[in-house]
Amino acid sequence: MNIIVNGREMSFTGNNLAELIDRLGLDRAKVVAEKNGIVVHREDAASTPLVEGDVVELVRLVGGG
Question: Do 15 and 49 contact (CB within 8 A), yes or no?
Answer without folding.
Answer: yes
